[in-house]
Amino acid sequence: MSELVTGEAVALELRPARLPSRALAVLLDLMAAMAVYVAVTIVLVTSTASLDEAAQTALSIASFVLVLVGGPIAVETLSHGRSLGKMACGLRVVRDDGGPIRFRHALVRGLIGVIEILMTFGIVACIASFVSARGRRLGDVFAGTLVVRERIPVARTGFVPPPPPWLSGRFAELDLSAVPDGLWLAVRQYLTRMQQLDPQVGWSMAERLASDLAERTGAPVPHGVPPAAYLAAVVQERQAREARRAFGNGTVNGTVPAATAAALPVPADPVATADAPAVDSAAAGFRPPAGAVPEVVSEPSDGERPAKPTVPPEVSAGERPRTGFVPPA
């Protein structure tokens, strides 16, 4: 990436085109120009057969200059730096400040290009591109231009996996006002990239983020809930609140938008929640590493629970039991 500063002190990050793509674009432009030049030459030869040799030579030189020199200049001027070869390769000629080129820029590039591309078979242009840090040839240096790439591969947008269904709506009463934006960003980045991390490393990161989030909210992480599933459920709750805040009660003209409906939590069924397993994270993509989660001890049955302590008979129903504490004098 090359950082350019405009006249308004705005920094632009542009990716300069390198020699292979530029050479392919120039080759395509030359092939198109030569095809047009051959067609024009054939038309001139057939139409000027009655002229003398000097006139035919003058017309051939004029056609050469107009087609092979004036043609690229006109195309780059009218298309603002995009010739046929550059369109095919996803390139564009811009000024040093990132703006579109004008006629004078295309004229200087075209005239110097005759020397460094046509007369030297591109040797001078290749050497200049190798020497330049941004891959510029002599025509770009004198014209104050730069060839940049327009089609840049876009990185895949991170997808936050949804939490398990039995966690939807479980954190509706959670206070999220004290959670800073930096922690939200860290949680989102982890959820979008947790499949690319080592299981042990990802699990430790999830535990650390879950503890930080629980400390900010004032409520501990529920027992038996994987930290990654807890983070995803809290993020879903935050998105649902933002959707309700943006659309009021979640309706626009009496209807629920599709984006809001997807973001709103689904009310948990008490019966289904009671019958749900303690951890159903494998189907949702939250599979803990081996040995990372301690064994969850099931609750004792009614027969195994200890008996409740009985109140001594000497304490009446309306009298509080004595603790033996005597206030100081």
Automatic annotation (TrEMBL):
<keyword id="KW-1133">Transmembrane helix</keyword>
<feature type="transmembrane region" description="Helical">
    <location>
        <begin position="57"/>
        <end position="78"/>
    </location>
</feature>
<dbReference type="Pfam" id="PF06271">
    <property type="entry name" value="RDD"/>
</dbReference>
<keyword id="KW-0472">Membrane</keyword>
<keyword id="KW-0812">Transmembrane</keyword>
<feature type="region of interest" description="Disordered">
    <location>
        <begin position="282"/>
        <end position="329"/>
    </location>
</feature>
<feature type="domain" description="RDD">
    <location>
        <begin position="17"/>
        <end position="144"/>
    </location>
</feature>
<feature type="transmembrane region" description="Helical">
    <location>
        <begin position="111"/>
        <end position="131"/>
    </location>
</feature>
<protein>
    <submittedName>
        <fullName>RDD family protein</fullName>
    </submittedName>
</protein>
<feature type="transmembrane region" description="Helical">
    <location>
        <begin position="23"/>
        <end position="45"/>
    </location>
</feature>
<dbReference type="InterPro" id="IPR010432">
    <property type="entry name" value="RDD"/>
</dbReference>
